[in-house]
Amino acid sequence: MTARVAALFSGALVMVCLVALPTRAADDDSAAKYSTKDVMKKAFKGPLLKKVASGGASEAEKKELHGMLVALSKNKPKKGDAESWKKLTGALVKASEAAVKGDAKAGGMLKKAANCKACHNSHK
Ligand code: HEC
After folding, report:
1. Residue 9 pLDDT > 90, yes or no?
2. Measured from the CB, is residue 95 less than 6 Å from ligand 1?
3. Is 10 exposed, middle or buried (0-12, 13-18, 19+ CB in 10 A)?
4. Is there an atom of ligand 1 within 6 Å of 40 CB?
5. Ligand 1 lined by 88 (C-beta under 6 Å)
6. What digits encode the pLDDT tens for the residues 22-77?
7. CA–CA separation, 1 and 80 (whole Å)
8. Residue to probe by mutation, ligand 1, list 34, 35, 42, 44, most atoms within 8 Å of CB
9. Which residue among 40, 57, 88, 89 is buried most deeply as judged by most CB within 10 Å?
10. Ligand 1 atom closest to Cα of 75?
């Protein structure tokens, strides 16, 4: 994905968020497909992220991880500013998308983007 497409994509995400805001209170539970806690337990602490990063995951597992990380990027962090959250989760979305596409660099991108401490320090 080129930088320009990435910029367009994150712009679109912001718009989706703005449009989704007024209805958010009514369906708070269904709005988030995976809570941040879910993603942490299933993908980060669990084996999914490691499996995809090491190249041993099936197509379905790569897609599952990508879906989780897209949901994570749309969640609101309970701490820290939105700009930083967007940057950290954006890198994860990009890396998992590369994995789905079969990009050879995806494993390295994922390992770099999944910086537990950097994100926990500002957002957990
Ligand atoms: C993009 C940001 C981000 C990254 C990267 C990240 N985390 Fe987290 N993590 C969070 C946030 C935010 C919470 C707090 C969630 C909450 O309490 O709602 C959290 C919470 C957790 C929890 C507690 C879940 C619970 O049940 O309360 C665990 C365990 C965890 N992370 C493990 C990891 C591990 C292991 C890594 C690295 C491989 C990692 N995380 C990377 C943002 C991140």
Report:
1. no
2. no
3. middle
4. yes
5. yes
6. 444 434 444 568 999 999 999 999 999 999 999 999 999 999 999 999 999 999 99
7. 27
8. 44
9. 89
10. 12
pLDDT score of 7 = 64
In angstroms, what is the span from residue 38 Cα to ligand 1's centroid? 9
**One-letter amino acid identity for 90?**
G
| Token reading at 48 | 């999914």
Residue 89 beta carbon below 6 angstroms from any ligand 1 atom: yes
Give the pLDDT of residue 121.
97
In total, the chain counts a number of residues equal to 124
Rounded CA-CA distance 85/79 in Å is: 9
What whole-number distance in Å separates Cα of residue 90 and Cα of residue 96? 10
pLDDT digits (tens, 9 = 90+) for 71-120: 999 999 999 999 999 999 999 999 999 999 999 999 999 999 999 999 99
